[in-house]
Amino acid sequence: IWLEAQANLKQVLTEQTYTTWIEPLKFLGATVDTVVLEVPSSFFQKWVTDKYLSMIKEVLSAITSKTYHVEFHVAESKPESSEPKAEKEPKAKSKDKDKEKEGERDKEKEKEKDKKPELVPNLNPKYTFESFVSGPSNQFAYAASQAVANKPASNYNPLFIYGGVGLGKTHLVNAIGNQILAKNPRAKICYYSSEKFMNEMINSLRYKKMDEFRNKFRKMDLLLIDDIQFMAGKEATQEEFFHTFNALYESHKQIVVTSDKFPKDIPGLEERLRSRFEWGLIADIQPPGVETKVAILKKKSDMHAVNLPDDVALFLAEGATSNIRELEGMLIRLEAFASLTGKEITLAMAREVMKDIIVEKTRDISVEMIQKMVADHFRIKLSELKSDKRIKTLVVPRQIAIYICRELTKASYPEIGEKFGGKDHSTIIHSVKKIEKQLAADADLKATVEDIKKRLFT
Ligand code: ADP
Ligand code: MG
After folding, report:
1. Residues with a CB atom less than 6 Å from ligand 1
2. I need a surface site. Which of 61, 133, 159, 345 has the fewest CB within 10 A?
3. Per the confidence metrics, is the pTM higher than 0.95?
């Protein structure tokens, strides 16, 4: 916005006034309601405040249709008293404001004392390589991250990871940090979202701690910046990050950046930053396929020490979007339901619990499909499956088929009976109960049933 403001001022002021008083003002940054400018001296500041402040404010509000405060910082940090006093504001108000600021400053100082033990890595200890499931969709980013963690600042610097929401970017960058930290507990590592980077920078500008801010970042061995797309259009933040980037890069320190888009596709990202990102390795994460989703569910349920049957995992994986955070949410919901009711997780339970979340596929499974699948599996004839013959090799498949029909279709007991050669509904209930009971004890049977169900879904 400052560039635009300057352009406007150039039009209304004489050229001499503009070059003398406006051009030397350096844009340091802006918050929602304040623009921060650097002035060469306090004399300069006083002059500009007296003569041009109201004009600057007018121009700012003209281009943004908002009211901005303007703060001046004297280059080479001069004493506090050179704070701008917006002359036109009533005295009392500006005093209050100053007091407020002092209060904030004290708070800041206190906070600083609290966390004096230098750099907080800010890493999430749960996000490690061990807890990350790799599959075709994320293989490249996963391998690149591991390479960086094993040999920081050698081949892939910067590493730029991009991919859609909930696909594991934050997880991977934390894993890099955690692994490096595990090997070298004294490594100076920091994970920052780009929003946090920006907020800290603006605060540092406000409280004249830019040197501290810069030094902190430039001392790092590994800087992880998450979601760089939030810096889009934030010129001052990008500028600062650019310098941080260069300083780290030149001293051979690793930088890892994530984004939801490829660098070229981030609107409002300055060309020079974009080209820096292209110096290193750009790795993408694609939406996971069903197999990867199943593997993630299996891993997470193992970590929670919960038994998640294959058919349920498949049901969730197929019903979920590609956002893994949502997939996790489903699992947690199901696990909570199972734990609260004290029951084992089953497909029927999953359907019940997820009925509002997973809109079931139109590919409804029919009684006939199940009959065919079961008959094929046991290599018996369909007519035998539906018959009344009481040979064991037929009875067991028949009961299994009936059980699966009950579980996977909406058919009632009499309807199922009808399709199994006109059996009455008590026979059907008996079969279902029998299998239910045996499933708890017989692992082979369970595997068989799950296998058949899985094939029905694919
Ligand atoms: P992003 O930052 O890309 O939006 P996150 O890294 O926050 O996504 O991932 C969302 C959730 O999904 C996290 O809880 C993360 O642990 C999990 N997750 C994502 N990908 C995987 C994976 N491949 N293996 C295990 N968990 C994953
Ligand atoms: Mg993220």
Report:
1. 127, 131-133, 138, 163, 165-171, 296, 324-325, 328
2. 61
3. no
